[in-house]
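--- STAGE predict ---
source: upstream dedup step, 1 unique chain passed
mode: sequence only
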Amino acid sequence: MPRIILLILIAVAIAVIGQISLKIGMTQIGEIRTFFSLNFLIKIITNPLIIFALFLYALGFVLWAGILSKAYLNSDLLS
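--- STAGE serialize ---
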């Protein structure tokens, strides 16, 4: 398997794990009725799963930017 395809699969896996972590973290916080309140912000920035999800988003962004700089993402990639 070409290296670039492996990197794409890793980037997708990071994105999926980030989405799942964010969902579980927000479920732990519970329903927020008032957005943009200090209490809401504190709950978000102190939840380990949400922090982990944000880390994964940043990591995935850097990885995806590297992928885009090195490969043409078209049908030639699969041949």
